[in-house]
Amino acid sequence: MPVIAFANPKGGAGKTTTALLLATELAAKKAAVTVIDADPEKWISQWGRLAGRPANITIISDVTEETVVDAIEAAERDAQFVIVDLEGTASLMVSNAIGMADLVVIPIQGSSMDAKGGAKTIRLIRNQEKMSRRKIAHAVVLTRTSAAITSRALRNVSEQLQAGGIEIFATAIVERAAYRDLFDYGGTLMTLNPSQTSNLDKAVQNAREFAGEVVSKLKAAATARAVA
After folding, report:
1. Residue 198 and residue 178: Cα distance in Å, rounded?
2. What is the pTM (predicted TM-score) of this model?
C-alpha cells in the first residue's frame, strides 16, 4: 500500500496539519489509514486522543530511528494508505522514511527559511534515490497561504521552485481556522460545527482538493514504476 511521507527540516511549515488533513480525507472515503507519528511533538497522537477520531485511522507513535522502517512495513500490510509525519530535522529517521516512501510531500510556507528547509529535503530524496536506485516521487505543497492575496515572498518562493524544476501541488493549503480547530477539539472537518468555525465549507473543499491531488500523484508514480 502507498506510503506518503511529510517532510521538511524547518519546523512550523504546516507539515503536521497537512498530514492530518490528508489522513482524515482518505478516511472519509472509507480507506483504512495508518498514521506514523514520528514528530517529537506528537500533535497527531494528541489529536487522536480527543473525541471524534474516525475508527479507520490508526496512529502509531512509538517509533525511533531503528524501528521506523519496520513500522512502515508493518503498516503497509494492514492499511490502504500509510502516512508518515516526520520530525522537523534532517535525521536518519527522516532519511529512512523517505527511502520507504511512494510519495514525499514537502510543505513550505512562503518564506526563504522554509524554502531552504525544502531544499534540504530534496537533497535527502536525491541521496535516497541513488541508494535505492529508484525514483521517489515528490512535490512541494505551499501551506498557510492567504485566500485573498499572494504575498511577494510566496511568489518569490514559487518562482525559485519552478526555476529549479521542483513539482508544486496545484492545491495550496490555505490558512483556515478550521484546521486549528481540529487540534483543539478533535474529529474531522465534517464533524466541526459550521456555526462555530468560520469558512468551514471552504476548508473542506480545500482539503478534498489536496487529497484528490495526492491520490492522482500516487497513481502517476505507480504507473511510472510499472513502465520502468
Report:
1. 7
2. 0.93
